[in-house]
Specification:
Chain lengths: 670, 170, 632
């Protein structure tokens, strides 16, 4: 056999071998030149809009390197005077239309635009300022928008549709009027967004940022009246170091405990504890379902973005979701019930703060079902980014801080609880637990490598205690959507499906420190595995504090008490706020409002012909002067559609007859 | 004299029925979004949000995408247009033959501006287009479907006066 | 012998039938029913003609049908004949008389004098610059100087009749291509003809087809780009309105050559008549079985869908057009991959302009040699242009490549118009060619032989064929600003250089015409222009600066006058055109002195007054104050 000569291309005079690069830009970066870009993102499709990645290709002139394939023999220059000038002018043009208040910008010092302007030496803007002030959108509890800072790179649009399959954001208008926004220019809180924050993760500027609660945290820490307890999620420990410009993946848990106490926390706990608890509850729920008490496959429910996605986009699957609350909310519920006594404080003075890698947890904490006596179980959710900012704001030099242990009892966790930070972690923890409970021959610390790995979707069959378990692990909601289609079509068999909204799981959460290079996630994932390995107890069944909790308060897994505190229920949610389509006109005021649902589920259940027939019937009976029929989009009872709301009442599985009967009844009453 | 737009379906129910018909005719194919919106706009004379939401649901598209498409193309209107849509050509041929003074005159007569395109009585909408393909007759004004060539500010205003007078008749 | 499947329409039979019906007519009157003539009242004239011919007791044939044995005068319609300015046009055959600007009131005279009396109505004939009446196209310089191939049948045949097209030789070449010619053979033939894309880029059509032909794919598409968004251009409109079947035939031949299974016509919605006629042509061709599941008995199918654009110039760009058909925002994508490899729905796709496609059957018919006999070596054949602006004869023309601007503007166009008068070369300032992507040609280019390469050489381009003539009273800064307004509004907003750069260029031009600019502005303008030109993603951005760069190069003095002397030499830009006192008219009454709020006017009584422009704020008060209209 002859060896094929390695094919090469020339980059700035140096030969570079051609590898599996997706495009010329990657080849150039591999060769050690960090070309500036805004609109290129290795996880997303190529867009080619920012034009910063321009290079000169001999014979082809100036080309955007992200948009062309490397070819053998290509001669490429990346830093000619012409290219420098083009990039600089392009940046200047962007800055002329940019609300550049860096000093008050959430992304300052982590901003690509700021960084590149400095790197390329843009020291003035020669053009007319075109940036018109645009009001900030703070309607979402998870992500804030400041479109005056948007450079229209489209990364958020692509991540939301390509990676998350949601499409809550898109471009609207054109030319210099172009904006990126939710449908009809509504706020993000009023859209079909599921709060995953991935858009803010990829946004190179301060246009999309995780919502910040730093001020409220300062207030809570500073209030002597309050007893402040903090829980720290597993994925935070491996990322915090990055906020100090230290390498990703190192375990900063002990330091964080110490720092939080210095900031004013009265106790520091570990969400890993409730993660262990989740495993116990969820594994037992799963066993019951397998024994016939519930629908399979069972889906995990610890990712609030996934839960919101299921509620908005896959309502028929809601019965398949585990009823377990997420570890954050299990912690919140337990804290409200047990910690006032434990800390000897008035329940109203107990402030529960979470430190999370996640923006969706901010949303989750606002859900009304997660409250005790009208008070949110979790008062404040801070992201890793925010905690970094709090520490920085306090002036504390972490290098001088000695690591400390968390408080007991809720500081006790096992390696399994830590695994939650990675996609596949919940599954592995369940498998370990099942192996232990079923008396599997394997070590109770067995590493189920078949559910580990960087791919977005993993399907595995695992033998545990003589039984074969079919599991699927998926991260990224678009992957989940594809997998669900396969499962529904019967092409994939799975009993347990773990869904995490963020690619790679919580280590890739949107609350984690900004990582423009894109290498941090793998380091954090490795850090999670290392932290698991460093624990003595690595199986949720081993957690003594969990055992004690059952003995003293919850009786046994899935008991009545456990259900009360640790489980919840889901309901379909409309994707868009109010939007009614008038179907009749009438003279009278105060007509009886009839809203016929034409949301996706009702639509699929034959809502539309029914609505046509209904309106015809209403008109035929001359009722339109007394009845105001409208089409609406989701009455949040999707499983029972088609639904029609008549006055206060919702008629499910509606037919023209049943709705007319309900109308008659309502009119008689009125 | 100019004819008004083809009558849009009169009742909300008829409009809604029409939209459903349009969707069915295009087999609810998301790729047909542009022609669907064009036809829907004929039924409503513009694209109301709720109707876009309905189209999005029926085509299984994110509403943000439908809005994105609707706002990209100049023909789609997000607010109702007047009964008479006056399109003044400002293509090259018309521009060099002084179309701008015609625009100014029309706007002045109707109290409209760059930002305000439709009269309060919903009778007139004045907009510009780039070339109606009748450059030989430049400058050109289109009122609904009717082309009027070799216009002057005076003759354009006269056309408007004619319509106003005609509309004033009971 | 060709097979005669009963399901397939017999082209030859249709042609013969139509020919016989034609032969039975005693006389034919063809009214132009293109957009221009229709708007000028062509249909009223037609109705009046039909009525009055009948009233005069003359036999009349309404529709030409093979089976109809009727004899008499036929009154038919055609597409645009290119001379819209003179419309409505009425042609009387067999004499081939062309009547211009015909109104209803002229009809009785036409009936009496021509139809009954057999004599021309002199006053309706076109008069050339010398005032000489011209009987028909052969005598009218506008027509006689042209070389009409693509437009040959436009304005002659009935665009709504499939039979008429067949009678004119239509669909023979499609049949030959599908039945007798190989796909490679077809690509080679078009390559040999040297045909270059008429959509603007001038890319060799044969090469484009071949690139698509060699792709392995069961599904391929051919798209006819009929988006003609170039302001000031209407060549494609006229072809579609006047001879829609020729475009379909071109698409069928292309489909055979590349192996396309379906075709699309992406047609500008601003052209309702073209939409109607192309849809009608598709429906007729389908009904006749020319389009469908079994084209010419080959067992292979080909269908055409017409899609209307929704008002976005950028959708003329290939990738944006594809995005638009697929139901997305019309935002361009980086090329490669080229549509020939990955186009519509990621399938190999050829996109060709209307005129390119309409040219294809003609080339097959006349042969490569005959085609190459026209035009230049690098740019064979003819090209249509929309000749507009300050020219005596505006309209649609077709000339061979290699003819000169002088021939177009002066011989065909009849000279430059200024202040309502036809003038000579001294009134000629420039021609803007290629629309918003193109550049200017000036007096020094009058004798340049026009083709793709020569124009590129002087910083202009053939473009799609818009040709706007401008007289010396046109302000070139204003023209550049006009194009910038257009491209800024039509930029899709995707890439930074175009989105932000065009609006900045426009802002700077606004400063120039508003008198707020200095030489630094011009330097910055040139700088941004260069960035937009080189770094933009698609052709729109890459060419958007051309009009600015071209006028800055050719009319530098005019720019300098705006920024340094703060004067608009043509007095077009209001802010830079302060009033002037006409010394001839001024009576020296002094009223304007009182009116001027800044004391800028001075002068002796009864002597002509003067304005001190260092003080004048262009408020216009003096204009209204003067009773003698001496100030303007
Ligand atoms: C902004 C822009 C607008 C264009 N508009 C048109 C158009 O209206 N018609 C057209 O045929 N080509 C247009 N083109 C050129 C087309 O992209 C394409 O090159 C052409 O249709 C190819 O056909 P041809 O090879 O037959 O010329 C446009 C290109 C750009 C960049
Ligand atoms: S987005 Fe970046 S450049 Fe803009 S204000 Fe914020 S930090 Fe500064
Ligand atoms: S860098 Fe300059 S402008 Fe920015 S904060 Fe410091 S002093 Fe102010
Ligand atoms: S938070 Fe997630 S779902 Fe919401 S817009 Fe951003 S990416 Fe889309
Ligand atoms: S919001 Fe951010 S990610 Fe989205 S387009 Fe704007 S700058 Fe890009
Ligand atoms: S994967 Fe983790 S970080 Fe991402 S949304 Fe879900 S819980 Fe939050
Ligand atoms: S050059 Fe202009 S039209 Fe083309 S992609 Fe860029 S912004 Fe859009
Ligand atoms: S008002 Fe008129 S006529 Fe009198 S001085 Fe002034 S310009 Fe001359
Ligand atoms: S335009 Fe106004 S300022 Fe200028 S000369 Fe006339 S009156 Fe005086
Ligand atoms: S990274 Fe290539 S154009 Fe933005
Ligand atoms: S779609 Fe949710 S209730 Fe109808
Ligand atoms: S420029 Fe006005 S019709 Fe063409
Ligand atoms: S429309 Fe009649 S000549 Fe153009």
């Amino acid at each position: 056999m002859t060896t094929t000569a390695t094919q090469t291309l020339t980059i700035d005079g140096r030969a570079v071998s051609i590898a599996q690069d997706r495009n010329l830009l990657e080849a150039i970066r591999r060769s050690g030149i960090d070309l500036p870009t805004f609109c290129y993102h290795s996880e997303l499709s190529v867009y080619g809009a920012c034009r910063l990645c321009v290079v000169e290709v001999e014979g082809r002139g100036v080309q955007a390197s992200c948009s062309i394939t490397p070819e053998p023999g290509m001669v490429v220059r990346t830093a000619t005077p012409q290219l420098r000038k083009l990039r600089k002018t392009t940046l200047e043009l962007l800055l002329a239309n940019h609300d550049g208040h860096c000093t008050t910008c959430d992304k300052a010092a982590r901003c690509r635009l700021e960084d590149l302007s400095r790197r390329l030496g843009v020291d003035r803007v020669r053009f007319q300022r075109t940036a018109a002030p645009k009001p900030a959108d703070r309607s979402s509890p998870a992500v804030h928008r400041e479109m005056g800072k948007c450079i229209l790179c489209g990364d958020c649009v692509r991540v939301c549709s390509e990676v998350q399959g949601v499409g809550a954001l898109d471009f609207a208008f054109r030319g210099s009027d172009t904006v990126v926004q939710p449908a009809f220019g509504r706020g993000l809180g009023d859209a079909d967004c599921v709060h995953c924050g991935q858009c803010s993760r990829v946004c190179p500027t301060g246009a999309l940022v995780p919502a910040s609660d730093v001020e409220a945290a300062w207030e809570a820490f500073g209030d002597p009246q309050r007893t402040v307890v903090v829980q720290i999620a597993p994925a935070v420990r491996v990322a915090l170091a990055e906020t100090l410009d230290l390498p990703a993946g190192g375990d900063a848990f002990g330091i964080l405990c110490a720092a939080l106490r210095r900031l004013g926390a009265d106790a520091v706990y570990d969400t890993g504890f409730t993660a262990d608890l989740t495993i116990v509850e969820e594994a037992n729920e799963f066993v019951k379902r397998v024994q016939g008490s519930g629908p399979l496959p069972m889906f995990t429910s610890c990712c609030p973005s996934w839960v919101a996605y299921a509620e908005k986009f896959q309502p028929d699957l809601l019965p398949n979701l585990s009823t377990c609350k997420s570890p954050q909310q299990m912690f919140g519920a337990l804290a409200r019930k047990l910690l006032p006594a434990h800390h000897g404080c008035d329940p109203k003075d107990l402030t529960v703060i979470s430190v999370m890698p996640c923006t969706a947890k901010k949303f989750e904490a606002t859900r009304p079902e997660f409250s005790t006596d009208g008070r949110r179980d979790v008062d404040l959710v801070l992201t890793t980014q925010e905690i970094g900012r709090l520490i920085a704001g306090s002036g504390l030099d972490l290098k001088t801080v000695t690591p400390e242990q968390p408080d007991l009892p809720f500081g006790m966790k096992t390696g399994a609880g830590i695994l939650f930070g990675n996609s596949g972690g919940v599954t592995e923890a369940v498998l370990r637990y099942a192996a232990a409970v079923l008396g599997d021959g394997r070590l109770k610390h067995h590493e189920f490598t078949e559910v580990r790995g960087p791919e977005g979707t993993r399907i595995a069959s695992v033998d545990v205690g003589g039984q074969t378990l079919h599991v699927a692990v998926v991260s990224g909601l678009a992957n989940a959507k594809r997998l669900l289609a396969e499962v529904k079509a019967g092409r994939v068999k799975a009993d347990l499906i773990e869904v995490m909204a963020c690619p790679g799981g919580c280590v890739g959460g949107a609350g984690q420190p900004v990582d423009h290079v894109g290498t941090a996630r793998a380091c954090r994932a490795a850090g999670i595995f290392a932290a698991d390995r460093a624990e003595v107890m690595r199986n949720s069944a081993e957690n003594p504090a969990v055992g004690e909790l059952y003995r003293e308060h919850l009786e046994k897994p899935n008991s009545h008490q456990a259900h009360d505190l640790l489980h919840t229920h889901y309901h379909p949610r409309r994707r868009l706020g109010d939007l009614d389509l008038l179907l009749t006109t009438g003279e009278q005021r105060d007509r009886l409002l009839v809203q016929a649902c034409l949301g996706t589920s009702c639509h699929l259940r034959g809502g539309q012909p029914m609505v046509h027939a209904l309106v015809a019937a209403v008109e035929a009976r001359g009722l339109h002067d007394r009845v105001d029929v409208r089409a609406t989009f989701c009455l949040e009872r999707c499983g029972e559609g088609p639904n029609v709301r008549v006055g206060e009442r919702v008629v499910s599985s509606a037919t023209v007859e049943t709705v007319l009967a309900a109308i008659d009844e309502a009119l008689v009453q009125a | 004299m100019s004819t008004a737009c083809a009558p849009a379906p009169a009742t909300p129910r008829a409009q809604f029925a029409r939209v459903t018909e349009i969707l069915d005719h295009h087999e609810r194919d998301p790729a047909r979004l542009v022609p669907i919106l064009q036809e829907v706009q004929e039924a409503y004379r513009y694209l109301p949000q709720e109707v876009m939401a309905y189209v999005a649901t029926a085509l299984d598209l994110p509403p943000s995408k439908v809005f994105g498409v609707a706002t990209f193309y100049a023909h789609f209107a997000l607010a109702p247009k007047g009964k008479y849509v006056i399109k003044l050509c400002d293509g090259t041929a018309c521009h060099v033959k002084e179309s701008v003074p015609i625009l100014d005159a029309l706007r002045k007569r109707l109290g409209l501006s760059e930002a305000k395109k439709t009269t309060d009585d919903q009778l007139f909408t004045v907009e510009t287009v780039s070339c109606l393909g009748a450059c030989g007759l430049a400058p050109v004004v289109l009122i609904n479907e009717d082309v009027h060539g070799q216009m002057t500010p005076q003759s354009a205003v006269r056309l408007v006066e004619g319509i106003v007078a005609q509309e004033a008749k009971p | 012998m060709s097979c005669t499947c009963s399901s397939t329409y017999d082209i030859d039979q249709a042609a013969i039938g139509y020919g016989q019906a034609l032969d039975r007519t005693t006389r034919r009157i063809v009214l132009c029913a293109g957009t221009g003539c229709l708007s000028a009242g062509a249909l009223k004239v037609r109705d009046a003609l039909v009525r009055q011919i009948a009233d005069a007791g003359l036999p009349i044939v309404v529709e030409l049908k093979a089976e109809d044995e009727a004899r008499g005068i036929q009154v038919g319609l055609s597409g645009c004949q290119g001379f819209c300015q003179q419309g409505p046009l009425v042609t009387v055959l067999p004499e081939n008389l062309l009547y211009c600007k015909v109104t209803e009131a002229d009809v009785p005279e036409i009936v009496a004098t021509t139809l009954v009396g057999g004599k021309p109505v002199d006053r309706l004939l076109y008069r050339d610059n010398g005032g000489q009446a011209c009987r028909g196209p052969a005598e009218i310089p506008f027509y006689s100087q042209q070389s009409r191939i693509v437009l040959a049948q436009c304005g002659v045949i009935d665009p709504e009749s499939l039979e008429a097209y067949c009678h004119a030789g239509g669909y023979r070449q499609a049949r030959r291509a599908w039945r007798d010619l190989g796909d490679k053979e077809l690509c080679d033939l078009i390559a040999a003809s040297g045909l270059r894309g008429r959509g603007g880029g001038g890319f060799p059509t044969g090469r484009k087809w071949e690139a698509c032909r060699i792709q392995q794919s069961a599904v391929k598409y051919i798209i006819c780009n009929a988006d003609e968004g170039d302001p000031g251009a209407f060549m494609n409109r006229s072809v579609m309105e006047g001879n829609p079947h020729s475009v379909l035939e071109g698409m069928m031949i292309a489909a055979k050559a590349i192996g396309a299974t379906a075709g699309w016509v992406y047609l500008r919605a601003e052209y309702p008549l073209a939409v109607k006629r192309v849809k009608r042509a598709v429906a007729d061709a389908e009904a006749a079985g020319l389009l469908g599941d079994d084209v010419f008995g080959t067992g292979r199918g080909f269908r055409i869908t017409v899609m209307e654009g929704a008002g976005a110039f950028v959708c003329g760009e290939e990738t944006a057009l594809i995005a638009s058909i697929e139901g997305h925002r019309g935002m361009p994508k980086p090329k490669p991959p080229f549509p020939a490899e990955k186009g519509l729905w990621n399938k190999p796709t050829v996109i060709n302009n209307v005129e390119t496609l309409a040219m294809v059957p003609l080339i097959l018919d006349m042969g490569v040699e005959a085609f190459r006999a026209r035009g230049t070596k690098g740019s064979p054949g003819t090209k249509t242009f929309a000749l507009t602006g300050h020219v005596a004869n505006t309209g649609l023309i077709e000339v061979p490549f290699g003819c000169t601007l002088r021939q177009i503007v002066f011989d065909i166009g009849g000279g430059v118009v200024m202040d309502g008068k036809v003038c000579g070369e001294e009134a000629f300032k420039a021609v803007q060619i290629g629309g918003p992507s193109g550049g200017c040609l000036t007096r020094e280019h009058l004798d340049l032989k026009l083709d793709y390469d020569s124009l590129r050489g002087v910083g202009a381009m053939v473009g799609s064929g818009g040709m706007v003539v401008m007289n010396t009273k046109t302000c070139m800064v204003d023209v550049a600003r006009f194009f910038m307004t257009f491209t800024t509004a039509e930029s899709c907003g995707k890439c930074v250089p175009c989105r932000e750069g065009t609006r900045q260029m426009l802002a700077m031009l606004d400063e120039v015409v508003g008198g707020r600019a200095d030489e630094g502005t011009l330097a910055r303008l040139a700088d941004v222009a260069q960035t937009v030109q080189i770094a933009s993603l698609c052709g729109l951005g890459k060419t958007a600066p051309s009009p600015v760069l071209s006028t800055m190069r050719l009319f530098k003095d005019e720019y300098l006058a705006h920024v340094v002397a703060k004067r608009c030499p043509t007095r077009t830009c209001k802010a830079l055109s302060p009033p002037e006192i006409d010394a001839e008219i001024c009576k020296g009454c002094g009223l304007c002195i009182k009116a001027c709020p800044v004391g800028a006017i001075s002068g002796e009584r009864k002597q002509a007054h003067r304005i001190d422009y260092a003080k004048c704020i262009s408020c216009g008060a003096c204009i209204t104050s003067c009773k003698f209209k001496a100030v303007a």
